[in-house]
Specification:
It is a single chain. This protein has about 325 residues and is α/β, with parallel strands linked by helices. The protein contains 11 helices and 13 strands. The protein folds into 2 domains: about 170 residues, Thiolase/Chalcone synthase (Peroxisomal Thiolase, Chain A, domain 1, 3-Layer(aba) Sandwich), CATH 3.40.47.10; about 160 residues, Thiolase/Chalcone synthase (Peroxisomal Thiolase, Chain A, domain 1, 3-Layer(aba) Sandwich), CATH 3.40.47.10. The strands form 4 sheets. It has a 5-stranded mixed sheet with strand order 1-7-6-4-5, with helices on both faces. The protein has a 4-stranded mixed sheet with strand order 8-13-12-11, with helices on both faces. It has a two-stranded antiparallel ribbon with strand order 2-3. Helix 4 links the parallel strand 4 and strand 5. Bound molecules: oxa(dethia)-CoA (UT7).
Length: about 325
């Protein structure tokens, strides 16, 4: 059977590190509050002039190198981000130009923190159908230039970091489904009733104004992320646990069978709660939020790359992924690395 295998993983974070103590200097917050409520110790912020596609280029080149491929081997780019280079066109087009591979398909997806899982499923389906053989899937974000750096926005501003993660998916004829490395499958969900619990209202066509951006919009801070943190927290724990349980059951595997879990990195307390609900041993969950904060679409591939470098992710391991984010969107996937 024709299936997708991850044959390359890469990542990139900007050089500039912002610790919680650095944040204390311009925001009414404290290292103690951030650490206790989220687990975050530091995050990376892009330099002025560094765009989402710039970060993605580095992560993509890294992933291509680890796959032993060059960009000209690619058939398609799937780009997951909620911080695009521009309102339109999609950031995949800008990345494609930077990679120098004009002509191949590019697809931007707007699934926020679940973007990597949606992208993985889309890539998997293109490969299963035989349409494409080599797909670059990248999650990349530059949050720093879009955060409210006043007390009004401190609940969100302390959470987000900039970064990028990428994988290369390749078509593979799976002969031994019990042992071969491939994407086994997964499930995806959304519930638009939660859309305004975590969102950036402006610019947008639904603001009921003659212009998408005007002074009133800017003064009201509608171009900054707004979040009902407590509600999102509860939904994240519930839906990630539910989705992961369904995904494992559907594939006839138990928590004990899974070697490593990579969860979206929004809050260490969310991931600890999911692990506790499902009786997942702590050492099987690979968290990176302490170092990178929440890099939304990039958290999972960035985590996989960190785990690879640390020798915590090895060929043949059974790996489960789960995410929850704005939309609401959520899901889980299972793969043998
Ligand atoms: O990636 C997409 C999904 N996103 C998430 O899953 C995020 C989910 N939510 C969360 O992680 C948490 O709700 C937060 C970390 C955002 C907030 O933690 P919390 O325990 O829910 O705190 P809270 O919002 O109830 O705020 C508690 C207090 C408030 O003060 P009062 O009203 O008790 O006096 C806030 O004003 O903490 C205050 N506060 C802060 N204090 C210092 C809020 N943000 C900050 C801050 N620094 N950055």
């Amino acid at each position: 059977m024709l299936r997708a295998e991850i044959i390359g993983v890469g990542s990139y974070v900007p050089e500039r590190v912002l610790t919680n103590f650095d944040m204390e200097k311009f925001l009414d917050t404290s290292d103690e509050w951030i650490r206790k409520r989220t687990g975050i110790e530091q995050r990376h912020w892009a330099a002025v002039g560094q765009s989402t596609s710039d970060l993605a280029l580095q992560a993509s080149q890294d992933a291509l190198k680890s796959a032993g491929l060059s960009a000209t081997d690619l058939d398609m780019i799937i780009f997951a981000t909620l911080t695009p280079d521009h309102f339109f066109p999609g950031t995949g087009c800008f990345l494609q130009e930077k990679l120098g591979v004009a002509g191949i398909a590019t697809l931007d997806i707007r699934q926020q923190c679940t973007g990597f899982l949606y992208g993985l499923s889309i890539a998997d389906h293109f490969i299963r159908c035989g349409t494409y053989k080599k797909i670059l899937l990248v999650g990349s974000e530059v949050h720093s230039s879009g955060l409210d750096r006043t007390t009004r926005g401190r609940d969100v501003t302390v959470l987000f970091g900039d970064g990028s993660g990428a994988v290369i998916l390749s078509a593979k004829e799976v002969r031994n489904p019990e042992k071969d490395s491939f994407v086994l499958g997964g499930e995806l969900h959304a519930d638009g009733r939660g859309a305004k619990e975590l969102w950036v209202p402006a610019p947008g066509s639904a603001l009921g104004r003659a212009d998408r951006v005007d002074h009133e919009v800017l003064e009201a801070g509608l171009h900054y992320p707004q979040m009902n943190g407590k509600k999102v927290f509860i939904a994240a724990v519930t839906k990630m646990a539910e989705s992961l349980t369904n995904c494992l059951e559907e594939h006839g595997v138990t928590v004990q069978d899974v070697d490593r879990f990579f969860f979206h990195q929004a809050n260490l307390r969310i991931n600890d709660a999911v692990a506790e609900q499902l009786s997942i041993p702590r050492e099987k969950v690979f968290n990176t939020i302490q170092k990178f904060g929440n890099t939304t679409a990039a958290t999972i591939p960035l985590g996989m790359h960190e785990a690879l470098k640390a020798g915590e992710l090895k060929k043949g391991m059974l790996v489960a992924l789960a995410a929850f984010g704005s939309g609401y969107t959520w899901g889980a996937s299972l793969l043998r690395y």
